Every structure is written in structure tokens, then in C-alpha cells.
């Protein structure tokens, strides 16, 4: 009640002031009718405060996000449902849901009075242009009585989380040579079975059928070896995302890093749906084996949180990838590289992996003077040449390029990449 009295509006306080004046006049003049008026004027704001104070604790609220995960640039609908749990009707309510700045301004909604045990829903739309996880709420409700004499604020503590994932672009089907095959396009055995002495054996394990013992391998190794069961064909791919802050340029949703994150998400989802055993690695600590999760949601949630690494290092990224790498296809999405860093990436070829680089020329995200532009182009050409000489297939990514248009280049044969190598050689010639 004390808090409700503090919530009296200017009108309510004016009623109390008028009641005090009428009471003093009634005592001085000895008018009983004036005393009744004073009591009535005082009773109205007090009853309103009691009414609003009681209603304040008899409301329930629920919030629904539809959907709770959206892509960058998409909208989500927030549905608020309020129910009056008391036997008394409420007054008009002003609803204000607290939102982070990235989701826009706070919505203010008016809800007419609710009858006894009545429920009503209101909705609004939010749109996010920046990846991340955002808290929606808590909801603030301003309650008032029918006469506008008292107003109280209630904040419901519950919050919901909206996840804004990178934009996923549909990609055309492309034959990617070099990966271990499964339900993908190419067909290469993951376990060799060309002859008796091939490595299609493993160490004996307790419970193995002795009829599967491979005596020739046992004699050669000195340990009991058994024939492996027929292995299914499978496609393996590793998507590598370069998160070094020094490799990217631009700010906000249009930065080169946001293009790279969207590309990583699109490629990962595309390969996963094509039946690949897919792994996502960044130098910011993300290492996700997509075969161990259900659906694309957890994978995209990881990319919703990824940020630029201030102390990123290509050598650390290489070590992270090689720690669990077993060959297959490696698709790297790299920002600016020095020639030395590009040469370090040659180590990926040591396990007979097919390596494709989406090489982002992030300097094109800046409006550079002519001389600076020439220097940036030459440096990019030198790094591109180093990648090509290391055995990588290189797809150049300038500002404004669309991933769906670049993706078919990842499946081109060596002739196209040889031509690109010659072009890079001519560009780099000026800095030798």
C-alpha cells in the first residue's frame, strides 16, 4: 500500500489536497456536508491506490519469439500474453518491452483493461542486422486505475533470447574433386581394399570373431590383426574461417568479416546437406564436428557468436585444423595474408587434402588512394601466388562479390587455376 501511495498521479495528489482543504474548511465552518465531501475526495485516490496495488500482484505474463532463431536481416515476431488472475478488472495498461540497441527502439503498446480472469495478447516485430544473441525483456507494465489517480510500474523478470545467425545463401551443386566420397559427388574409398596386403585391417579387439583374423598381417606386424568390416564411403570436408582482426576491413554488417562468416555458414550448411562429414574450425577457438550435432541450428549458433580475434595467428589456426584432420576437402575462407602466411598454409597438403581458398581481398572494402590501391593489389597478388604454388585452388573475392556466383569456381579443374596462377605471377612481378 505504501508503494501504491507513492504511485499517485498528479490528479490523485490533487484529490488528496482538495480533501485536506475541504476538511479544514468543514472544521472551521462546522459544515458536515463539506466534511462528507472531504472524506469522498480522500477515499477516491486511496481506493484507487489499493485497487492498483492489489492488481499489480495478480498479473501473469508470457512471451513467445517466432522464430527464436533468425538470419541477419530477417524479422522475428514477439508475442506478449497477459492474463488477469484477479476477480477485479484492470485499468488501461502501457506495455514496454526492453530491447538491446541492435534490435531497435523499445516498443510501447497499449492494452485495454482486462476483465476478471481474462487474457489478451499483443505483438510487435523486431529486426536485427547484426549477428549475436540478444535478450528480449524484461517487460515493464504501467498499471493505472480507471480514473487515472494512481499509476504503478511492474517489471516481469523473465527474458527470452533471440539468436541472430549469419545469412545462409543457397549454393548450386558443384562436383568437388578430391574429397573422400560418400553421398557426395565423387566416389573414392575411405579404406583401401585393393589386395590382401592392403591396410584394410586393424588390431584385434576382445570379442572379435577369430575367423576374421588376417594371418599375413599378423605375421608382418607381430600383433593379432583382423579384417575390417566393409567401410561405407564418406565425404569429409573442413571449413576453415580466418578470424584474425588484421585480415579484415570494414565495419558493421557490411565488413569483410561478415561476408566471411556468411560464406562459412552457407558452405557448411550446403556440404552438410550434401552428406559430408563436416567440420568447422576458426582460430578464435571454434572447433565443431557437425556429424555430432542434430540439425544446422547448433552449428549456426556457433557462427552467431564468433568475433574477430585480436591475437589471431595463422600458425595456431593450422595447428588447430591438423590436430584432428584426416584429409578430405579443406575449404578456407581467408582475409589478407602475407606471402609468408600463405606459404605456411602449404602444410595442409601434407595429408593429401584438396585445398580450396576463398581469398578475400578485404582491402577493396576500403576507399584507398590510387597509390595505396596499387600496393594493396600487388601484396594480394603475391599472397595469391604463394597459395597457388602451395597447391591451393584460389577463388578471388573482391568487394561486392556474391558467394553463389563464386561457388562454381571451386570445382574447376587445374587448367583454370593454372591461368589464375599466371595472372597472379604477372601482378606480383612488380614487387619482386
From TrEMBL:
Keywords: Membrane, Transmembrane, Transmembrane helix. The keyword Transmembrane helix applies. The chain crosses the membrane at residues 12-29, 35-53. Residues 201-283 form the DUF58 domain. The keyword Transmembrane helix applies. Pfam families: DUF58. It comes from the Bacteria. This is Membrane protein.
Amino acid at each position: 500500500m505504501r508503494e501504491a501511495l507513492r504511485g499517485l498521479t498528479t490528479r490523485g495528489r490533487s484529490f488528496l489536497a482538495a480533501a485536506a482543504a475541504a476538511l479544514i474548511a468543514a472544521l472551521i465552518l462546522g459544515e458536515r456536508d463539506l466534511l462528507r465531501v472531504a472524506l469522498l475526495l480522500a477515499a477516491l485516490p486511496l481506493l484507487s491506490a489499493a485497487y492498483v496495488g492489489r492488481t499489480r500482484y495478480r498479473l501473469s505474463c508470457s512471451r513467445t519469439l517466432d522464430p527464436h532463431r533468425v538470419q541477419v536481416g530477417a524479422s522475428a515476431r514477439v508475442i506478449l500474453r497477459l492474463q488477469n488472475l484477479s476477480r477485479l478488472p484492470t485499468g488501461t495498461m502501457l506495455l514496454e518491452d526492453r530491447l538491446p540497441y541492435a534490435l531497435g527502439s523499445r516498443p510501447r503498446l497499449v492494452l485495454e483493461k482486462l476483465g476478471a480472469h481474462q487474457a489478451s495478447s499483443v505483438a510487435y516485430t523486431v529486426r536485427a542486422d547484426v549477428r549475436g544473441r540478444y535478450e528480449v525483456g524484461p517487460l515493464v507494465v504501467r498499471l493505472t486505475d480507471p480514473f487515472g489517480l494512481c499509476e504503478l510500474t511492474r517489471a516481469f523478470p523473465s527474458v527470452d533470447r533471440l539468436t541472430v545467425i549469419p545469412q545462409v545463401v543457397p549454393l548450386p551443386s558443384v562436383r568437388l574433386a578430391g574429397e573422400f566420397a560418400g553421398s557426395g559427388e565423387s566416389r573414392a574409398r575411405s579404406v583401401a581394399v585393393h589386395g590382401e596386403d592392403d591396410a584394410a585391417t586393424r588390431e584385434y579387439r576382445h570379442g572379435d570373431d577369430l575367423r576374421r583374423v588376417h594371418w599375413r598381417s599378423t605375421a608382418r606386424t607381430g600383433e593379432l590383426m583382423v579384417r575390417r568390416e566393409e567401410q561405407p564411403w564418406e565425404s569429409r570436408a573442413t571449413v576453415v574461417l580466418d578470424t584474425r582482426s588484421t585480415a579484415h576491413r570494414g565495419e558493421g554488417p557490411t565488413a569483410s568479416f561478415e561476408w566471411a562468416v556468411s560464406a562459412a555458414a552457407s558452405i557448411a550448411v550446403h556440404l552438410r546437406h550434401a552428406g559430408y562429414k563436416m567440420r568447422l574450425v576458426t582460430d578464435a577457438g571454434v572447433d565443431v564436428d557437425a556429424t555430432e550435432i542434430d540439425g544446422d541450428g547448433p552449428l549456426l549458433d556457433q557462427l552467431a557468436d564468433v568475433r574477430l580475434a585480436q591475437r589471431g595467428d595463422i600458425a595456431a589456426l593450422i595447428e588447430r585444423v591438423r590436430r584432428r584432420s584426416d584429409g578430405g576437402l579443406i575449404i578456407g575462407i581467408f582475409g589478407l595474408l602475407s606471402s609468408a602466411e600463405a606459404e605456411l598454409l602449404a602444410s595442409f597438403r601434407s595429408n593429401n587434402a584438396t585445398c580450396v581458398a576463398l581469398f578475400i581481398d578485404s582491402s577493396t572494402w576500403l576507399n584507398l588512394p590510387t597509390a595505396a590501391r596499387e600496393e594493396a593489389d600487388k601484396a594480394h597478388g603475391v599472397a595469391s601466388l604463394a597459395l597457388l604454388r602451395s597447391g591451393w585452388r584460389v577463388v578471388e573475392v573482391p568487394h561486392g562479390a556474391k558467394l553463389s556466383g563464386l561457388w562454381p569456381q571451386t570445382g574447376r579443374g587445374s587448367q583454370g587455376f593454372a591461368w589464375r596462377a599466371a595472372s597472379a605471377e604477372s601482378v606480383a612481378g612488380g614487387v619482386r
